[in-house]
Amino acid sequence: MQALRGSSLRSSTGLKARSSTACRAATAIPPKFKGVKPAGDRVLVKVDKEEGKTQGGVLLPTVAQNKPTAGAVVGLGDVELVKSGDRVVYSKYAGTELAIGGDEHVLLKEEDVIGVLPSGDKIAKLQPLGDRVLIKCAQAEGKTAGGVLLTTESDKPTLGEVVAVGSGKKDADGKVTAPNVKVGATVMYSKYSGTEFEEGDDAFIVIRESDVLCELA
User: What's the number of CA atoms in the CB half-sphere (13 Å) around residue 55?
Assistant: First the structure.
């Protein structure tokens, strides 16, 4: 899964998701239709409201408002990992945006749901889905061993502590293989993998287990 990178913007998840700004037009469902039933392995999510003001009360232009990537599941297809009412976090550019009764929704594949995060909970409480792993990123060092200041994005470490793991990867026969990584382990992961979040001074990333390169002992 491609990392969401760019400027740090605060979303209505209560986090800062590292992402770039983009606009997509939602498909309006005609008023005569009262419901949407997801097909296959899809879920319908009612998107959290966007923030219309900064923390200081300044109104934000529409294009400057950060797009939420969280919402409540309001419709289910043939899925196993989420249920109606779950508040989920999903990949930013995934799915099809729908306008239903004046509210913004997104129709997602279950695969695009990163994890379940009840409203008000901190990102450390995220329950990753499938073969995903939630990692609290290590703090970047301010200097090299030789005393040279580190200032670029490329100097950011790609290791951290495993905070939570999903149920595991499902094979073609429907068998689920539990993750090999354990909560509490310190791991190194692929540099451009996953979806990043910031919360206060802490940084987190959700990656696939296959993007874990090694465990440090």
Answer: 5
